[in-house]
Amino acid sequence: MCGVYLVNPKHQLPDRLYHTTEEMFTVIECRGCGLMRLDPRPKDADMPKYYPDRYWAYGATRHGPAGFYRRFVLRDHARFVKKALKSVDAPSVAILDVGCGAGDLLASLRKQGHSAIGMDVSHSALRSAKELDVPGVHGSYRQAPFQDQIFDVVMMFHVLEHIPDPDAAIAGARKLLKPNGRLLIQVPNADCMQYTILGRKWMGLDVPRHLYDYRRQDIENLLARNGFAIVRRKYFSWRDNAPCLATSVAPWLDPMSRRVRQPNRNKLLRLIGDSMYFGLTMACWPFALFESMLRRGATLMVDAEKLPQEAVAKWTGGGMPPLGQ
Fold it and tell me: Taking the CA of residue 175 as centre, how many other CA atoms within 13 Å lie in the half-sphere pointing to its CB?
């Protein structure tokens, strides 16, 4: 991020959540800017094995109390998106969700009449999105199968921490956006109080799936040098902040990881586990709200506007930096 190649070893971690491997992974910290990252990074060809097929919500997991809870907390993301949509003077907004996952957010936006489509590298994620009649394409931030400047809004919720070249991802989003288009990003916030207290046990690190661990200044620098100006920031998420703390404290209780590790578990035992996790999450709400009020919440959402070329040149001191380099 800053060009400094001196680092400090920070953590040695296993895959605490899904137990996809017995390997240990090293998180290092840049001595120049403080950005943390996984090093050495797993090879691209090895990454799919760290994402189990049941990583996404699908089928029965969308129904019952768990499904109701998912839909309820997702309203927080929907409200954040709606504020960005108000900046677009059109009855129907063209939206691309990069790393759309199971497609729940896109489904709610499509019900409101917007032209929303998903893109993901995971076929299982696209199958999950299809269950909700959400159109999706198989593609990555490096090779998005779309023409330039056709979207009003590009979303990247919990995507940027998973990809090896964040500059290329932001530059790619800029190409896809219309003039003054909006880029919405959410990442785990490595400057949160949860990480300060829990350290290596903070689930926001989530090795080996998370390759980078961003703070607010990291995201601001990344967006500014790629031609975006941040309009809004948000440090709280109903869906993510309290559950992140609950999973950090008791990763064995996390509902999705239990479904991955024990797919045939007795329904009664699964219900008991879900109830225990729900109770723990409720107990975490006060702390999650408190840290967010101090702008040190466990997640960071930003709404950034695409700058015109002239403004970018002025922003960067007279010349546009090489995008995606």
Answer: 16
CATH of the structural domain 7-315, one choice from 3.30.2130.30, 3.40.50.300, 3.40.50.150, 3.40.50.360: 3.40.50.150
The set of residues, in sequence order, having a beta carbon less than 8 Å from that of 105 and lying 6+ positions away, is 74, 77, 78, 81, 97, 155, 157
Backbone angles phi, psi at 183, to 5 degrees: -115, 120
Cα-to-chain-centroid distance, residue 196:
20
The closest alpha carbon to 199, from 30, 2, 1, 16, belongs to 16
Angle between helices 267-293 and 241-249 in degrees, nearest 10: 120
Amino acid at 126: L
**For 126, phi and psi rounded to 5 degrees?**
-65, -35
pLDDT single digits (tens) 36-59 = 999 999 998 999 899 887 665 555
- Strands (E) in 191-291, as ranges, are 212-213, 228-234
Residue of 17, 73, 57, 55 lying closest to 282 (CA atoms): 73
For residue 272, CA distances in Å to 72, 126, 265 come to 21, 30, 11
Question: How many whole angstroms from its chain centre is CA 32?
Answer: 25
Lowest mean pLDDT among 48-52, 64-68, 163-167: 64-68
> Is 325's pLDDT higher than 50?
no
Closest CA to 323 of 121, 218, 166: 166
| DSSP-derived pairing of the beta strands 94-98 and 151-157 | parallel
Two tokens, residue 10: 């920070």
Residue with the bigger pLDDT between 249 and 128: it is 249
Phi and psi torsions of 256, nearest 5°: -70, -40
Sequence-distant (6+) residues with CB within 8 A of 171 are 226, 323, 324
Average pLDDT on 264-291 reads 93
Domain ranges of the chain: 7-315
**To the nearest whole number, what is the mean pLDDT of the chain?**
89
